[in-house]
Amino acid sequence: MLRHLTALVLLPAMALAGVSFESDARPINRTAPGASYADMLARIMPSVVSIRTAEVIPQSVLDRYSGRIDKDKILKDEKTGETLMPTGLGSGTIVHPDGYVITNRHVVIKRDRSVSETVIVQLQDRREFRAKVLGVDAGSDIAVLKIEGRNLPFAKFADSEKARVGDVVFAIGNPLDAGMTVTSGIVSALGRSGKQGMGMAFEDFIQTDAAINPGNSGGPLIDFEGRLLGMNTAIKSGTGGSIGLGYSIPANLIVSVAMDLANGGKVVRGLIGVQGEDISLDEATKLNLGKKGAVRVSLISDGLPAAKAGLRVGDIIVALDGKPFENWNELRLAISRRKPGEVLMVNFIREGRGSLARVTVAERALDR
Predict the structure, then answer these.
(1) Closest CA to 119 of 141, 159, 92
(2) 141 catalytic, yes or no?
(3) Pairwise CA distance, residues 291 & 280, whole Å
(4) Which is catalytic among the residues 91, 116, 141, 223?
(5) Multiple choice CATH, 160-264, 3.30.470.20, 2.40.10.10, 3.40.50.720, 3.40.720.10
(6) Is residue 96 annotated as part of the catalytic site, yes or no?
(7) CATH 2.60.120.280 applies to domain 42-146
(8) Strand partners, 121
(9) Is 77 in the active site?
(10) pTM of the predicted model, to two decimals?
(11) What is the pLDDT of residues 287-308, one digit of tens each?
């Protein structure tokens, strides 16, 4: 080891007579299958935005604590003249040309769970807008913002129920404020919730190994054709960075929640008044259900639709409107997405015999 090196001297380069290196300046053949996703991403990326939250700093506070405030972090609103202190960073997607933006609820709320007073949306072309928060939903961690624009670039939703494990996906966002970034991977799993989920009341995550890091929250998970398949929301990590376990809210859930928030400011969910538990594979086999999911009713709430329709504790629900489901979480989510007044056909087994109940959906209270 050299311990007394005091200077590094760069010697003149020696010309190597007669030596040349070949280059090929042609662009890659982007029409070849799998060669490039650049054209697709160029279409979708203008709809992806960076979202910052901030608090207004009164002039009296600036004057009093000017020596303690990091001036490099202070923003100035050119339109209002207000001094702003950034408080949070995330991403989002424009989903309507008139300026409707979706993101995560946790991107736009403060520690006291109130909505941030100042939300700034920056487009790819560096235009900035003060956004209005139209509504937030704690149950799904979805928020809808509105910016004053027209003919804005926007993303179209995919049908997330048609996603399959192994599909190629792309995560787009502003991780760690590094600038708009694209990562790629595949759909690793579907229907993640509970131990695999993040603690929201209504979870149905798409799991992906596309790198998702802090700042990606609220950004889109894009499918191979450039459609919005999900919203990047959470990661599991022992380091705080991506280890290949990312979770995205599926497009179909986003649409149902976001439309309620955009049109009324709150989410209206269905309720029939049951609680259930998954039955074992052995029991499903004895009931000739094979590997299909089924739920045993563990609680019936008096006076609510399920009780009125004649369902009882111990009944085994096997389908909703003739459609099977995987587990209690999926059944509960499906019921919650129905609107009050709709009629559900509940297929169930009681004492070994199949039966059918017509259940009229009620409105779920906000705390249920």
Answers:
(1) 92
(2) yes
(3) 10
(4) 141
(5) 2.40.10.10
(6) no
(7) no
(8) 51, 129
(9) no
(10) 0.82
(11) 777 667 789 999 999 999 999 9
